[in-house]
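Entry 0007
Protein: 3-hydroxyacyl-CoA dehydrogenase NAD-binding domain-containing protein
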Amino acid sequence: MVRQEVDGDVAVLTLANPPVNALGAALRASLDEALAQVIADQAIRAIVLAAEGKVFVGGADISEFGKPQHPPSLPDVLERLDASPKPVVAAIGGAALGGGLELAMACHGRIAAPSAKIGLPEIKLGIIPGAGGTQRLPRLIGPDAAFAMMVTGEPVSAEKAAALGIVDSVVLGDLVAAARTRALEIADSGTLPRVRDRSDKLTPEAREKFEALAADAVKRDPDATNVHALARAVRAGLEQDFDTAVATERAEFRALVEDPRSQALRYAFFAEREAARVPGLPKDTPRRPIRTAAVIGAGTMGGGIAMCFANAGIPVTVIETEGGALARGLDRVKGLYAGSAKRGSITEAQRDERVGRITGALGLEQAGEADIVIEAAFEDMGVKREIFSKLDTIAKPGAILASNTSYLDVNAIAAVTNRPQDVLGLHFFSPANVMRLVEVVRAEKTAPDVLATALDLGKRLNKLPVTVGVCFGFVGNRMLERRSRAGERLLLEGALPHEIDAAVTAFGFRMGPFAMGDLAGLDIGWRSRKDFGGRAPVADSLAEQGRFGQKTGRGFYLYPDGARTGTRDPEVEALIARVAAEHGVARRSFTPDEIVARLMYPMVNEGARILEEGIAARPGDIDTIWINGYNWPAWRGGPMHWADTVGLKTVAEALSRFASETGDDSQEPAPLLTRLAAEGGRFAGLKNA
Ligand code: T1G
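Output (structure tokens):
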């Protein structure tokens, strides 16, 4: 837990609690005891606090929240540092996050390695720093800069941390030796520079800037209880003495730990990491080397996928069948990189490096040397089967053959090759170079090493790969189809497009389904329904009139003069009434809560079926998909976690009611949901399916 070494009259304490030195109860106790010993040891003049592994301290142990706290608490350990008559200097060799940074700020000095990331990400977990962070950071860098850092939760580089004044210096080479020197310098100086004693940064100007930032933040997200709490905690530090303000912060923090938003965000944090573990896929499964890639299709998706490889340093060939499409695709990619460089999100050198890793080529035979080939061609089974049967003879032995299909049967695609074990789906989400989620579609014959390689590749591409099984729409789109169908039905029953969109955005989505449809283009769904069957009477009627949405200036809404936000169109509302009459559907008004239930419960029901069929291994995988692929509000934890908070009995009873109201018996609760509801169970209680 904490190793002690003595080097002359300096004690070096090294935290060792893999994988991230999280400050769980055992580590806190071990650190507290070690500090007590070296502080009491007359032979020791100064102390260095170091850590093992690539992370300095990843924060408090999030898995302990909401459970009985074992002493000493982190504030107790920091009080020991405050009371220390000897200097303690932190040697920050890696990420110092949350409680890790709070620990370092309670030291008398901080030396960082160039690779260290420094931050207080608590806001992302629906809480705020709870061990002095809202008090010490403002004393180091001012309440304005501190609030700005804490309200986004984004870490800064070691260099930036030094420029701000969070760390004293950034040192290449032997970090502990540098920290040792600094600790002895402080010991020799005869003074103990405690952050809590500083007030030079707490100026009226800085306070004014802080209050303006706080007002903005609260206005931007009025329901974010933790943003309000963060403002109150920082303000307390400007109005109360240090210890009183720390107590204020602690009270705010403890209240937030019990907040359902924070419980959902902490659930999502672990669900995302759990998704990387595929039941039955041993950790030591061999991987195939991926040194080069080929993407078939230079369209929006193909170009975006190619950018993911180029961004990860993997050379990639983009293959088209004709020169014009290839040139247009490559130009689009170059334009995207130019935009990023112009905005400063990448340097010009990075732009040129990444563009340089993407080669255009004509003809499938150019894919012959690639370690992985990703097909991103037209969403048509005939096209895909033709491509895969050719790739079967062109791709080198052992190459992984992946389809970026959003819906289609990957087993049927694999079946046209003589190497079904090398075939799987990699369903990227648009825009592929931005969205983190990738549904890794495991076909019946996909070999374990191919799946393991694809999951590692997903992480290497800085994506969030979640393993799913083969069915129409896999997990995300299969559930989305249920919400779309429910939305269409609601239109016929009397809820207007803007009422439905308003209920969905109030629920926490960035956009409602109809505004989203107008943005994506109503022609896409219309064509897909024509190919795969299914009817959306209102959306189809609009598409048949050429009302495709923003791209035609009219869809569910009107977009006069290229407006980006739609306005209500009486013509559409009259059309809906006509279609409802044709279908003999009586109309009535709906409350926002009814709209949310009618849209989201069928999704949850489909999620239950997906679990029953083993298409997803666990409810957390479904939630991870919806938070990262469809912008389900993370503070609601995803559809399955949210259903647990609603109560599965409530959900099941409502679904039965919807089935009888709409005559659609596919709304009847799935057997798994019925069983859990009857037992008073929760999806969270399910072990891996
Ligand atoms: N607590 C418990 N487990 C943690 C953890 C944490 N803080 N951080 C990571 N893990 C686990 C994670 O679940 C995974 O487990 C393994 O470590 C590797 O994680 C009092 C209250 C540090 C940048 O929010 O951002 O301090 O799946 O895959 O990609 O004010 O982990 O292997 O079983 O993410 O190398 C604030 C959260 C806490 C940082 C490393 N701290 N962690 O990234 O590894 S609240 C955070 C991260 C707090 C104080 C407050 C990242 C990382 P498993 P990983 P990585």
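Curator remark: Residues 19-20, 22, 55, 58-63, 74, 95, 97-99, 102, 121-122, 125, 127, 129-131, 133, 270, 273 surround (2S,3S)-3-hydroxy-2-methylbutanoyl-COA (CB under 6 Å). The chain is about 50% helix and 10% strand.
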